[in-house]
Amino acid sequence: MHTGVMIGEVPLGAQHETAIIAPVLGSTLDDLAVGARVALDAPVDILEVRLDHVLAASHANPARADAVVRAALKAVRQAAPSLPRVATIRTAREGGEWDVSDDVYAELLCTIVDSGLAHAVDVEIARHPAAISSVLNASENQNVPIVLSRHYFASTPPRESMVAMLEYMATLAPANLAIAKLAVMPRTPEDVLALLGAGVEAKKKLEHPLITIAMGRLGMVSRLAGKVFGSDASFATVGPQSAPGQLSARTLASLLER
Predict the structure, then answer these.
(1) Which pLDDT tens digit goes with each residue over 51-94?
(2) 0.85 cut: is pTM over it?
(3) Is 204 among the residues known to form the active site?
């Protein structure tokens, strides 16, 4: 049985409607705050606070990065206190703006978990296992949910590889505390079908909530009909896109008949 995960007061899981997650990103605290305020007037359930842009713009060294992250999360909380926040440091190797060592990455995420400034954190599972493990331990100790994520911006792995990836994510953390997220770049309609099929198969096997996305225009159907194929949330914009193919939150909500 799918137990689901709570991000703030928003449930993600098989028994709930598709959650709309809006990324807010920018190179300054004001950019982040403006995006968060816009989201308040949009059909958005959860904010994803993309911290990598502001970290890159600030040229933050490890000693300053902690202060930058805290200030950014506080700015978003002040601008949109009613919306739950997922803190994400999307690194350069997975399409983000900040290149960072595994140790610094893990230390920052552990700081965020312990700070209480975010309702969930994104963890890139391609990082060194020891780094991932430290964040997972902090998450479990503080009962802060995590989004276990893997992004393929150049290709779509075979269906069986995608299912195996989602199954691996499920071994890392309990089903009531972790969401498995997989995003791929399709080159053909068959790639989109492979992603959708992997979501269906994984949902039958796993108790964890899933987010499965085929990016770009070709994969847009996965953002619209993801729930049918096992995906429990969809990303939509209230400002700049954080990945190719994202619809506006209003358009997505309308098409989902929300």
Answers:
(1) 999 999 988 777 789 999 999 999 999 999 999 999 999 999 89
(2) yes
(3) no
Q: Which of 2, 53, 119, 181 is catalytic?
A: 181
The one-letter code for the residue type at 46 is I
Choose the catalytic residue: 2, 119, 151, 203. Answer: 151
In angstroms, the CA 178 to CA 208 distance is: 7
198 close to 166: Cβ distance less than 8 angstroms:
yes
